[in-house]
Task: structure prediction
Amino acid sequence: MSKLNLSRIISVSFPVRKYFRKVFDKKQIVLHHTVSGNGINGDITHWIKSKFRMGTCIIVGRRGDINQVFSSKFWAYHLGVPGSTYKKMGIQYKRWDMNSIGIEIDSYGGLKYNGALDQWETVYGNRIPDSNVQLYPNKYRGYSGFEKYTPEQIQSVKELLIFWSDRYGISLKYNADMWEVSAEALKGKQGVWSHTSFRFDKSDIHPQPEIIEMLKSL
Result:
């Protein structure tokens, strides 16, 4: 398995007041995507301006660059699971943000098809080349197309997962139910999950075949 070269990690300036410098046992790793353009500056600015201490410890850029916002041993809000979800699933409410590590993958996420121009566009109106679009004929979380995660991003996520599994003892066994709201995720089961494992209203991350292949290889 590929090991993470720690010298690749880029330290990001992020105010201490915007995350919690308190250590909890880590049981889960949760994958997100940003719904933003190339680069992390906008995401960092959004988190700093928020009235909440929210964010993830890592953002992986489109070229696979690993940007560390704060140490994985600390935490910030990144799940936002409403109590109604626990009630619907028949599970007692428990917040897992402090016991989980969040990764953001820099991506526009869900796309819309512009029939008049015969092109896929982001929620901001940017055109995405067909070669960068992952199609879902039956839709995934309301979208027929998503911007693809790059091979470099997938490789960096793989290396991070292996690194954190070694450091915190988190299981890397593939959870096939991670692409829909999962009772096991909500109960705090160890492992790698998606934001969609916790919330009905989120579409990050999407089940791109290359992501699934990588997760199954761990």
